Amino acid sequence: MLSGLVIVLLPLVLGYLVALRSTAVLNIVNQAVNLCVYAILLFMGISLAGLENLASQLSRLGGQTLLLFSVTTLFNLVALWWLSHRVALRGGTSPVVENAPTSKLAAMAGSLMLVGVVAGGVGAGLILGPWMGVSLFHGAETLAEWTLYLLLVLIGCQLRNSGMPLRQILLNRLGLVIALTLAASSLLAGLVAAPLLSLSWNEGLAMAAGFGWYSLSAILIGEHLGPLLGGVAFFNDLTRELFAFILIPLVIRRYAALAIGYGGATSMDFTLPVIQQHGGVACVPVAVVSGFILSLLSPPLILFFLSLSG
To answer: Domain containing 109: what range?
Structure first.
């Protein structure tokens, strides 16, 4: 378990050590992160194409994803609703951030495009598989793993250059409480969902520990539990992001902690523009801190729970 943890956390730490002052270089890093995510999902799709009885397996994937997402969302919403009644944060009470993206459809289209990349990978695997054989699927898994390491370096760099020092993050108690509430309720949901998915308790915990970080959870789960469950982890976390785009504008004015927390790790990047637009500037640092902490918690938790199998 320790070696696997080091392999995942070392790139994250190395990236965090890199301080960038050039806006142009930061833009390149951001673009490289997006490219790595697309590459990982393409390779994951190719790996899915290597499954026997693909049609029935994909049907099973959809059913398990729906079950895991439903249980996790129920636990998250109840816990975050409870928290929202005990914290003094309301969205929409401060000026709205100017020039923040206002189109939820555009944001959701970006997320749906990720599904298209996975589907493209499946199609490529089905076309190339008969000619290249199992070497195609093994190669895709290896490339996905190495691309993940590069992605972690780049994300570590993004975290370092987010403009928010670790001291400020650790002192933001509300962001910390929201993150821990989301994490605890997700893990409890994983325990409940595990027997329903025919998984061991620790595998259920690992499946629930992605906290919305779909590119990471897909690869780590897929590497240990197979491409099918890797796909379940990916679609579960991606569906969280899609639902968050709909949920945040509806509830952030009355239940800001719920809206910020439900986005999970994405509240510091993909869902942050929606939080900015509908919650105002007061919600932004809380969302960044919550997403930051969940991004740091996810890799070690997934690996720890998976290590308990052996």
So the answer is: 1-308
